[in-house]
Amino acid sequence: MVIGLIFVGLFVGIISGFFGVGGGMILVPMLMALGFDIKSAIAISTVQMVFSSVNGSIMNYIKGKLQVNEGVWVGVGGLLGGVVGARLTDLLPHETLQYIFLALILFALWRLLSAKKPHPDQEEGTFSKAVLFVIGFGIGIIAMMLGVGGSVMLTPILVGFLHFPTKKAATAGLFFVVFSSIAGLGYKLAAGTFADLSLDWTQVLSVAFAALVGVMLGILLKDKVHDTHHRLSLIVLYVVILGLLVEKIFFA
Q1: For the chain, what is the domain count?
Q2: Of 38, 82, 151, 178, which residue has the fewest beta carbons closer than 10 angstroms?
Q3: Domain that holds residue 212
Q4: Which residues, including other chains, have CB under 8 Å from residue 3's CB and lie 6 or more apart?
Q5: What distance in Å separates the CA atoms of residue 104 and residue 94, rounded to the nearest whole number?
Q6: Whole-number Å distance between alpha carbons of 150 and 170
Q7: DSSP letter at 145?
Q8: Which of 57, 18, 59 is nearest to 225 (CA)?
Q9: Is 103 left (phi over 0), alpha (psi -120 to 50) or beta?
């Protein structure tokens, strides 16, 4: 099982670095397919996201790809929202979490498909710090409810409403995951969630450390791909995740 989880973590880490996502939207269904229940999968995903997002954001910053100014306000909102979302995870039934996850993927896919490609001379949209905080707070709640980093929602918002290129949106999305995942992990540790689930920490850390390596590979790959191809790849990823969720919810 551990060897399999290492490969899963490595794969999810590559996806995380390449697409700027926390990795939870693909890791949670994969862990469920391996026999974990959704709440255990969410807990493992939360640990993985801390490892991959922190490492990936440091790497993006060193490479000069990450701008932390406005992203901090979204991140702080996500941090506080993540605490609320982590609490709601313990209160909601498995079926409700699955349907919320499905709706989230449909929204993200719709925004990516409907967003127009930004013109080279078109300025990126801006929001006030208060609005950025509220956006982050709302995304943080939903993100930690589902064990995803939140960039699954933030990236389509940045691309579809603020006209960010997808690669720049991916970098900002991964930075947001740092805040929301740390908040979610802190709450789960304080609440004793991992003890209640009786998770094997060898399995948890196998996924996390493998993802840490994978995210570096994913970022290197992202920087070599044209923005148009990156956007198409992101759409394909969302379609694959949608298929996995539909199969799990309606046909398993």
Answers
A1: 1
A2: 38
A3: 2-251
A4: none
A5: 16
A6: 11
A7: H
A8: 18
A9: alpha
Under the banding of pLDDT at 50, 70 and 90, the label for residue 112 is: confident
Average pLDDT across the chain, whole number: 83
Nearest to 18 by CA among 151, 235, 217: 217
Amino acid letter for position 20: G
CA distance 61 to 66: 5
CB 188 within 8 A of CB 50: no
- Asked if residues 160 and 111 have their Cβ atoms less than 8 Å apart, the reply is yes
Q: How many residues does the chain have?
A: 252
Query: Tell me: the pLDDT tens digits for 8-33?
Result: 999 999 999 998 888 877 888 889 88
| CA torsion angle 208 211 215 221 (round to 10) | 180
DSSP for 15-52, please give it. Answer: HHHHHT--SHHHHHHHHHHTT--HHHHHHHHHHHHHHH
Cα 39–chain centre separation:
16
Helix (H) or strand (E) holding 148: none
- How far is CA 75 from each of CA 79, 100, 216, rounded to the nearest angstrom? 6, 22, 21
d(C-alpha 54, C-alpha 36), whole Å: 25
Q: Which amino acid is at 68?
A: V
Residue 105: the pLDDT is 80
